[in-house]
Amino acid sequence: MTGMYHRTSFRILVKPTTPTLVASGLTKVIGKRTIVDDVSFELDSGVVFGFLGPNGAGKTTTIRMLVGLIRPTAGTVTICGYSVRREFEKAMRCIGCIVETPDLYRFMTGRENLAHFARMLNADDADIERVASLVNLSHRLDQRVGTYSLGMRQRLGIAQALLGRPRVLILDEPANGLDPAGIREMRELLRGLAAEGLSVFVSSHLLAEIELMCDRVAIIHRGRILKSGTVPELIASQRAMELHVGDVERAAAVLREKAVEFTPDHDRLFLPIEESDTPPILAALVENGIAVYSARPRVQTLEEMFLDATGGESVL
Predict the structure, then answer these.
(1) CATH assignment of 239-298, given 3.40.1130, 3.30.70, 2.40.10, 1.10.10?
(2) Is residue 45 within 8 Å of residue 197, measured between CB atoms?
(3) Which CATH number fits domain 9-235: 3.40.50.720, 3.40.50.300, 3.40.190.80, 3.30.70.20?
(4) Pairing state of beta strands 263-265 and 216-221?
(5) Please, which of 40, 107, 115, 131 could form a disulfide with 162 given CB 3.0 to 4.6 Å?
(6) Buried/exposed 125-154: b ≥16 CB within 10 Å, e otherwise
(7) Where are the domains of the chain?
């Protein structure tokens, strides 16, 4: 396999459990403001789960509740069968996470950074070599982190998160600031880890990358989940037929008479129907003397669907 991901014996470290993480009714109220409102989702083994939302939507607050950094006002989090509230230590042993930026010592080498955290996790030198190989940093492990690129620091942070042999990996914006090559390498790494059975939760604003990387996606907006499902399901739910017609106003009148939903856009009409349902509609338009220049399926990208769902608010 090209790229940064190196297969190791990681597979035997992960015991398949479905689901590995369950968030149920998570709510966080601060003062009179509801930051997160009744958020629920599940992660399965071997799945990359994308968590998308505009700035201030509640993504980071949700992550902080998942890893026990803040207590929810209501709702529960269960990780590998352990309640974060009642069995915190057992639940946390199942998680590796990076919230915001990796916590690294730049004056130390990569190996020294990993050794520092390995002592807290009762990991050994073999574990350090294992995670370094996973993220393709073995060749730079004895150099100071201050000499690393941003992508290398992100990879070292993920290596650190993998030291405890977690079953769930939670990453907040792991590709933030990376160049296209670094983003591709990050995608390969996370897909490779999921292929070995790890559950990966990724918060990100890189919509096109989430579409390529993730198996499932949840879109959060103003503290509530608007849409969730597999990427193909979400994209398929936005399927429509695009009609290029000669007279949009007359065509719209015909569609209203037949109670057909549509959205006009200049000289085109978008109908939320399957291609197989199109022939009688086209026949009705032609019978009424309306020129139909083309009719073709149109499937929204995840980015277009996100912008529609959130009213075009920025994800930055």
Answers:
(1) 3.30.70
(2) yes
(3) 3.40.50.300
(4) unpaired
(5) 131
(6) eebbebbbbbbbbbebbeeebeebeebbbb
(7) 9-235, 239-298
> How many residues would you count in the chain?
316
Per-residue pLDDT of the chain (316 residues; tens, 9 = 90+): 334 444 444 443 434 446 899 999 999 999 999 999 999 999 999 999 999 887 788 888 999 999 999 999 999 999 999 999 999 999 999 999 887 667 788 999 999 999 998 988 888 889 999 999 888 899 999 999 999 988 888 889 999 999 989 999 999 888 777 788 888 888 888 998 999 889 999 988 777 777 788 899 998 888 999 888 887 777 666 667 888 999 889 999 999 988 888 888 888 888 877 778 889 999 999 999 999 998 887 766 666 666 666 665 554 4
* DSSP for 24-80, written as a single string: EEEEEEETTEEEEEEEEEEE-TT-EEEEE--TTSSHHHHHHHHTTSS--SEEEEEET
